[in-house]
Design goal:
Blueprint: H1 3-18, E1 44-47, E2 53-59, E3 70-78, E4 89-96, E5 101-102, E6 108-111, E7 116-122, E8 128-138, E9 141-151
Antiparallel strand pairs: 1-2, 2-3, 3-7, 4-5, 4-8, 6-7, 8-9
Length: 152
Amino acid sequence: MSPLTERLLAALCCALISTCGNDEPSAPGTPPTPEVEAVQPDWETATSRAGRYRVAWRPAGGPIPLNEPFELDVEVRTAADDAPVTGGIVSVIAEMPEHGHGMLREPRATEQEGGRYRVKGMLMHMTGRWVLSIDVIVNSVSESTDFEVVLE
């Protein structure tokens, strides 16, 4: 992109921002400062097999490391009304279907607040395709949600 095109694009963006609800006048020749929303790290999300829950997860602290312990953040909400699921039991396993084995550790989940759970003791020791299964048990009823994870 040429410098002239970049300047024209910047001027157009500034004009659009100033007409979209920025109430504070800016100094002449100074573009207004747009409001920036906080960006949450990406969550993998799916509905449980029977459709009762929306389950989301992300590795805590960055990408999943190869052959090193890590933790997961898990969030469970009802699919019907998006209410946080509290007082449940969350169980997580990861398996490599093509190899016929799972992880070498048994992770443990601890309930946090607002439908969030922290899973400690995860370790994926090989590259390849893993299936991460998150089970949610509430009132003795279990529902599972599967996610595909590929480690390279």
